[in-house]
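Raw record, unedited: WD-3 domain-containing protein
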Amino acid sequence: MNPRLEVLSLLSEFPLLIPLNDYKEWQGYIGVKEHQFKARINVPNYPSLNGISWEFHPQIEKELLNHKSKLINSKSLIDFLQLFQQIVHNTISEKTSLKSEITTSVWNGQSVLFYKQLLDGLEKSIGSCKIDEIGCDMKWVRICYRDSKCSTHFITLSLEGCNKHNSITSFKIIQHDLPNEAVSVLLQDTSFNHFFAKFEEVIESLVPFWDLCKNLEEKTWVIEPNPPKKSDVHRRIYLAEDLSVTLKLNPFDITSLPDVKFLGAIDAVNQARDKFQSFLEMYDGWDSELTLLENLERLLDIKQFVNKKYIENVRLKAGDTGCANA
C-alpha cells in the first residue's frame, strides 16, 4: 500500500494514535471493545516494519510477546495494528480476571469522544505546522514548523481549557526556541485557532534576523553566547586581545542601530567608545542601507573582522615559533 494512503487509513481506523517523527513513532490509544489502551509503537524504518517494537499494558504484553513472530511479519503497519487489536480483544475475552485490572488504566467511551474531538480541532488549527509530539494525557502538545530556509522550529503548548464543544479555549507556551520579543508578539493573540498562523508569520519575519546572526558567526569570532541559540538576541564579538563588543539586536528591526557596549581593558574600552561615537557623528549616524558588519567596520575603523579559526591559527603558529626558538 502507498505509505500516504496507509497513513490516511491508519488515522481513520485508529484516530487516537498520533504519528510522530515522520511516521517512525506512533503514540496514543488503541480501541478494543469499550476500552482504549495506551500504546507506543516504534517503526524506525517505516513503511518497512523492520525493527518494530512496542510498549503496551503490562498484563497484555505477555500475550503480545507470544504472538511476536506473527506481529513483526505483518505486511504493513495497518495489518500489524489490526492483528495487534485482535490479539488484545481475544486476551480480554478469554481472561476475565484482566477486566478489573485494566479498568483503571484505560478510558471510557466518553473520554474517547472528548479526545477525538480535541485532536480533530487541533489538526484543523495548526495549518502548515505539524504535531511533533503530544502528551498521552493530551495536556500538552509540541508543534514544529519548517521555515522558508528549511530550518525547523518547535513550540510546546500546555492545553488548559475547552468549551462545551471540546474546542481548546485556553493554552500557555511552556517551551520554545524563539526570542522573547517574538513570544510577546505571539501572546498578543489569545485565540487558539489563529495562534498557529501567527506562529508561522512570526517565524518567517525572524528569518532575516537568523540569517544575520549566522553571517556574524561565520565572519567574526562570537565569544558569547557559546553556542548561540535561536532565542539569543545578543552577540559578544572579539575585537582584540583586550577588547570585545556586545551587540543587542532587535530581531524585528535588523537594519537599525543595535545596543552597543564595549568590554575589556579600561583604556581599550574608552578608546573604542570614543572612536565609535566620533565616527557615528561624522557619518551622520547608522546607515540602514549597509549591513551590520559594514556599519561596524566603518564606525570602528576596522578593515575586516577576524573569525575564531583565524585567531587560533595565528596563536598556533606563534606557539610553534616560540618552541622552535627555544
